[in-house]
């Protein structure tokens, strides 16, 4: 029979001791916090993320997050830089290495569609970032955009205007994927738009 003290029993009592986060190396902890920050940014948006939310997502204390990232800008910009590098290295640069412009552009857009399935959080963050005109992170996005534009324009005889259209098609692709348009329709739409636009562009 349990021992009673007032209305509570010993067997009902809960252990309220603080649960400490598992001990990790500095590098592993930084990676854990970056992954948590990515999830929080994807869920809440660039302008609605703070150290407390990241700490909760990572299962660590708020001071731990501040130890690694002193400001909101430092925390956010590191995640955005990682997302930018991921898109450039996994999609834009491999596409730019292909010889045929139409094939390269179509491949990049289809690869972006697959990227959304593979890393939904990064895709959501990029789409949010690309429209965050009033955010302090906007100049950083313009730097990313300039790099992507130059790489794409290099495939199509330096046609920057067409490069901007192609980047716009990536936004269209993202919208279709996040509104659950079927992959077949996404692929057919990309093919028709790329084929039609390149055929009508004298510089392509």
UniProtKB/TrEMBL annotation:
It comes from the Bacteria. The keyword Membrane does not apply. The keyword Secreted does not apply. PROSITE patterns: HTH_TETR_2. One of its GO terms (molecular function) is DNA-binding transcription factor activity. Pfam families: TetR_N. Residues 27-87 form the HTH tetR-type domain. Keywords: DNA-binding, Transcription, Transcription regulation. Residues 50-69 bind DNA. This is TetR/AcrR family transcriptional regulator.
